[in-house]
Amino acid sequence: MTKADSTGTRKRRQRNSINAEEIVGGAFEVARRTSLDQLSMPILAEHLGVGVTSIYWYFRKKEELLNAMTDIAVDKYLRLTPEIRAYDTWQNTLSSHFRAQREIHHEDEVLSDLLFIRTSTYSREAARRTMELVESVVAKLVADGFTPDNAMMVYSAIGVYTRGSIIHERILRLADAPTIDAARQRHMTDWSHLPVLDGLIDRHPISGTSDEDFEFGIARLICGFEVLLREQSQRPRKTSRGSTAARGAMTVRKAPARKKAGS
């Protein structure tokens, strides 16, 4: 499919009858029908029913158009992400935050491409807003007892798990891999010589990308973070000089003065 609107022709619009917002909206429509890679200025112009020069009047090259689309994608992502609430538990905060992230990326693959692939080209405003969201989650973990370093690593670990799950599943779907479907993977091979898998494959996709798999991973990660929090609270706290609080609490006694000879 080389043209985004091959099912019919559109009447050419008058010059100066389009604006930047309509162009960006049309770009999303074309990208969702084809892909970001196949999005081009001529195809977009045909889709919108304008001359290609009308597109270049607002966006001199595709890169500028993609930057504008990324700003829209960031805005949508932030609007759909649950608010971080001080009264909520950190466990529920993490699970709801990353569960929502996965759902958002599943529902809008163009948004996913823009946010995952184009992070180096975020505008300063988009970067600020996304980092404010990260700040709010990490600050919530700190407020609930994690050290700042541990809070950052907790966020990074569960974030990488979530993004990896999203990307892995998408790659397998694009490849039409049978391992994402429990019914199809039964016909992949003769499982009789693999007795453990033979008893599992009808219930579990081997890809590990189902909702059940994702929820299992999130729950196990949170269990590990709970252990980390307990271990952290059991460690002796350090003073500003690097000595433990227990050691700092000890008083240093002066050695008794030596008696002078002959006294």
Automatic annotation (TrEMBL):
Tell me the ranges covered by the HTH tetR-type domain, including all copies: 17-77
- PANTHER family recorded: HTH-TYPE TRANSCRIPTIONAL REGULATOR RUTR (PTHR30055), HTH-TYPE TRANSCRIPTIONAL REPRESSOR FATR (PTHR30055:SF207)
| Keywords, ordered alphabetically | DNA-binding, Repressor, Transcription, Transcription regulation
What is one Pfam family matched by this protein? TetR_C_1
Q: So which domain of life are we looking at?
A: Bacteria
Q: Does the keyword Magnesium apply?
A: no
Q: Tell me, what is one Gene Ontology molecular-function annotation carried by this entry? A: transcription cis-regulatory region binding
Q: What is this protein called?
A: HTH-type transcriptional regulator
Q: A single GO BP annotation from the record?
A: negative regulation of DNA-templated transcription
Q: Where is this region: Disordered?
A: 233-263
DNA-binding region residues: the ranges are: 40-59
